[in-house]
Amino acid sequence: MKIGFIGAGKMASAIIKGVKAKPFTVIISDRDPETSQAAAERLGVKAAQSHQELADEADFIILGVKPQIIETVLAHLKIDKPLMSMAAGVSLDRLSTLTNPNLPLIRIMPNLNAQILKSTTAICGNQHVSEQLMTTAKTITDCFGTTFELPEKDFDTFTALAGSSPAYVYLFIEALAKAGVKYGLNKKQALEIITQTVLASSQNLWLGTDSPNDLIDSISSPGGTTIAGLLDLEKSGFTAALVSGIDATIAKAKEL
Ligand SMILES: NC(=O)c1ccc[n+]([C@@H]2O[C@H](COP(=O)([O-])OP(=O)(O)OC[C@H]3O[C@@H](n4cnc5c(N)ncnc54)[C@H](OP(=O)(O)O)[C@@H]3O)[C@@H](O)[C@H]2O)c1
Q1: 21 with 144, same domain?
Q2: Distances from the Cα of 47 to the Cα of 41, 62, 63, 90, 137, angstroms
Q3: What domain range includes position 90?
Q4: 135 and 69, same structural domain?
Q5: Is the minimum distance from the CB of 125 to ligand 1 under 6 angstroms?
Q6: Which reaction does it catalyse (predicted)?
Q7: Residues 37 and 135 in one domain
Q8: Is the domain of 173 the same as that of 94?
Q9: Is the same domain home to 102 and 206?
Q10: What are the tens digits of pLDDT across the range 34-72?
């Protein structure tokens, strides 16, 4: 199967690395033939001379351009193959208006962990996507991580919880590392300690059967250090601050 990528920036390039490791052929078309050729050489794939050449040659098309230019890109294109879009905030209805009302359309929301082939990706399709096509689409998204099939109405929430949240996790890591520096550790050492702890804590949760609350309880000895820290974090509104950040992320996603 030949997969064509229109736009080969950060996210598409990460995805292409995963896809080309599987039995798919990849062809790309970026801003113009020169940038397409340069990206194709960098990624070890073939470049098309134009978006239309790509649309004619590929069996499955993936749009990797910014949401703001989707309309311009699709306006000059005749597409009769299944189309997948990764653009934040661009609905299936909008894509249908910009293409053809009978076209099978798939929307995904990957995250930057695609760079290490560990994206948490949401997927949904319009009424023209058969079960078999959805299976093929998930085979593609599974090449760069884990796929969650969700109704489109939940995409904005997913965008906050998986698309943007890596930035909030990095902020959490950075804040803990700063605390380490405050108490005399050097920054590099503090970052290594925290990153390793976050990684192992996630694995412990993922691999085990305990809930986060069970694990919190087992760390919190009566009268101990952890419960003192936890209560102080809540006094400063830790949970409320995080939920408020998610509220703001979802509100912004709805505006796009
Ligand atoms: N980055 C993320 O974490 C993330 C997460 C989820 C979803 N997404 C979605 O992924 C898409 C791409 O985001 P990105 O971060 O990868 O952006 P990006 O790095 O800017 O990639 C966009 C690519 O499209 C190229 N381009 C510009 N005009 C074009 C045209 N007319 N035809 C074809 N290609 C064109 C750009 O070239 P130039 O650089 O020369 O302009 C660039 O190579 C967006 O829709 C975004 O919403 C991104």
Answers
A1: yes
A2: 8, 14, 15, 26, 22
A3: 2-150
A4: yes
A5: no
A6: L-proline + NAD(+) = (S)-1-pyrroline-5-carboxylate + NADH + 2 H(+); L-proline + NADP(+) = (S)-1-pyrroline-5-carboxylate + NADPH + 2 H(+)
A7: yes
A8: no
A9: no
A10: 999 999 999 999 999 999 999 999 999 999 999 999 999
Residue 256 binned pLDDT confidence (cut-offs 50, 70, 90): confident
For ligand 1, atom 37, which residue shows the shortest CA distance?
31
Q: How many domains does the chain contain in total?
A: 2
Q: Distance (Å, rounded) from C-alpha 241 to C-alpha 234?
A: 10
pLDDT, one tens digit per residue, over 164-187 is 999 999 999 999 999 999 999 999
- With a 6 Å cutoff on the Cβ, whether 118 touches ligand 1 is no
Ligand 1 atom closest to Cα of residue 73: 31
User: So what's the pLDDT on residue 129?
Assistant: 98
Q: Which of 150, 173, 191 is the last residue of a domain?
A: 150
b/e for 13-47, b at 16 or more Cβ within 10 A? bbbbbbbbeeebebbbbbeeeeebbebbeebebbb
Q: Ligand 1: does its nearest atom lie under 6 Å from the Cβ of 30? A: yes
